[in-house]
Amino acid sequence: MEVSIVILVLAIVFVSQALRIVPQQSAWVVERLGKYDRTLQAGLNFLVPFIERVSYKHSLKEIPLDVPSQVCITKDNTQLQVDGILYFQVTDAMRASYGSSDYISAITQLAQTTLRSIIGRMELDKTFEERDLINAAIVNALDEAAMNWGVKVLRYEIKDLTPPREILLSMQAQITAEREKRALIAASEGRKQEQINIANGERESAIARSEGDRIAAINRAQGEAGAIKEIADATAEALRKVASAVAEPGGMEAVNLRVAEQYVDAFSGVAKAGTTLILPGDLSNMGSMVAAAMQVVKQGK
């Protein structure tokens, strides 16, 4: 009975030492008698108890690594507080185990030194404009060095670029001045467009008024010409009718009577219009005055 218990305990220990279940996206490094033997992949794996052991366990997932903030000096001697975040992935478990005593610390230190070097070759304004270029340069530099550590650097992102307070204030003032300049330019462009629109409106209005005046003048002239023509036609027709009436029997006598009436009416009108009355030289000889008027009528015929 005791022997059976001992055998069972030994069997449990053997199985626990022999079986290893590796999670997905993980790689375990196995050493046999202190020497690298193989890398276990995800799933169930077997080890030789007491001879082999799992020395290192690595995750093959993408790992974010916060790079501590540091002070960098730009080409124009401005201090910048810069921090970022690095994304990497273990691609070779054996190199990650034996390539460096601490590959995370090595990556972090290399990222900081590379960042200082790149920032030192750029002026302050460029550091804000060329963030993508800085990120790409750091990734290239780290990826080349990290190959010996079994690590693939995927990307680097600058989180903050913080200049000194004096520089921030001057940058803010510059931005404010630039915005004010743009506002003034926009306002002047608005006034310019407004003046152009007003001038165009006045020009079009003046053209419309002159066109209206021209058409009105033409219409008035045509109306006056038509009126004159109608009057002339009516006068001609009246004269023709008078001449025809004079040629008929008794026509001349009627004309004499009409002329005598108009003569008398004319003097009557002159007397009513003013205080001064002009009379013909011989009022008693009304017949001679009518005869003189008729002589004029005859001469007109």
UniProtKB/TrEMBL annotation:
Q: Name the family.
A: Belongs to the band 7/mec-2 family.
A single Gene Ontology CC term:
plasma membrane
Subcellular location, record wording: Membrane
**Classification via Gene3D superfamilies:** Band 7 domain
Task: Pinpoint the Band domain residues.
Answer: 17-175
Give the protein name, as stated in the record: Stomatin-like protein
Which species is this record about?
A: Limnobacter thiooxidans
Primary residence: membrane
Q: Which InterPro entries match?
A: Band7/mec-2_domain, Band_7, Band_7/SPFH_dom_sf, STML2-like_C, Stomatin_HflK_fam
Could you tell me the membrane topology recorded for this protein?
Single-pass membrane protein
